[in-house]
Amino acid sequence: xxxxxMAKVVVATFLLVALALGLVLGWHHGEVPRQSxxxxxxxxxxxxxxxxxTQRARFVRYYDAASPxxxxxxxxxxxxxxxxxxxxxxxxxxxxxxxxxIIICGAGIIGASIAYYLTLKGFKPTVVERKEVxxxxxxxxxxxxxxxxxxGVTEQLHTKSFELHEELARELDLKSYRKIPxxxxxxxxxPNPSKVCSWLDGNIATSRLMDPNTAQVTPKxxxxxxxxxxxxxxxxxxxxxxxxxxxxxxxDGARKVRAVVVDGEEMPxxxxxxxxxxxxxxxxxxxxxxxxxxxxxxxxxxxNHAGAQRSNEQPTAMFCEEDGNGCHLEVYPRPNGEVYLxxxxxxxxxxxxxxxxxxxxxxVPDPKRVAAAHRSFSNMTTVGRDVDGPGLAxxxxxxxxxxxxxxxxQVPDTDNAYIACGHNCWGILWAPISGLAxxxxxxxxxxxxxxxxxxxxxxxxxxxxxxxxxxRAQGTAEVGEQW
Length: 483
Fold this sequence. Notes:
Largest sheet: 9 strands, mixed
Organism: Eutreptiella gymnastica
CATH topology of the largest domain: FAD/NAD(P)-binding domain
Pfam family, one: DAO
Protein name: FAD dependent oxidoreductase domain-containing protein
CATH superfamily of the largest domain: FAD/NAD(P)-binding domain
Strand content: 15-25%
Domain FAD dependent oxidoreductase: 102-441
InterPro entries: FAD-dep_OxRdtase, FAD/NAD-bd_sf
Helix content: 25-40%
Radius of gyration: 25 Å
Number of domains: 2
């Protein structure tokens, strides 16, 4: 019995050692079959959510058939390149060559940010804009900044861009930037002034501090200041409509953009950047790049009467629960005495085909939602009761990709084309880090500020996209406008 038992122990030990050795060798040489999963955090939205409710992050898993082997962390970066379409890097002679003609399509907040950071590297890009600087969402957004609200792959964008905003506010002398707290609010049906905000003096059921470490900037001022600073450093602004791109054969069968067609005329280009917000869907026609964009047509309003100045007694950003008017207001008092409202509800969704038929000037506000917002705001504060309605009603098209992540990087199978779009409701916050990251990639051949891999343009060519979130989230807790 003893001998038999010892024999079993010896055999078992031998097998365990052999198995361990095989795993070590397999790990090192990449010979152990496996399923590779990419963990992508998205915020699953089933409908408007009460502020403060916690929703678990949804993890999307993708099978990586092109790389069926374990890789160690040290080899992970190398394995990424093997499963992606060919990325034809700019030749070494182009790296750092500031004489190269770079054309940026779009003078919104992303395009202006890229232009600014390129000029800091000595380049003099040409920015082509259809109408004017900050004509669309880059000039009509709320400008809410929350550095601690990121989660998963977007955490780096929130944290680093929040810091860059403060730096840029000093460098560009922005008057609209300031640190403010954020509160959550639930409107009521009887007079009950808020105890956390002096001018929230209407029918308030509950109000509480949500985040003391947030900030704001007025997007129009920010975008315009960036563009002006870039122009002072040698960038050029051309007003015209980008109608297409002329391509020729480049390296190893890749396509190379030779020129950008603007109002029927060709503008020669060494490098091209598409930063056209929701209209970046044209990259599908021009460069065969899948861009599963959904445009979210949303109304916003601004109160700019004398009574709105009271909001500066205690400037506080507010996220409000959904009310009987179908609103879940986001309220942003601004340093100039204006009060900006979004989260008005009733947003419309545009698919790529519809987006291509619309121009920025076609995006107009919905009068019914303007009236609903006024009813909701007037119920919460006397600031809204002093007038018959807001002084300004406007609308913009928010660019949202189907996985709720931005698209940033070099267009696959091209030598010299790049894209940055799909920043959803965080476009204002993420603009500085997006501009810096893209400038690094374009000028230096690689990005060192953040990891752009989760946002790579080619992910929709190989991965099955899942519907993602359309509103804000504080970490995994959904807040603000969802529809």
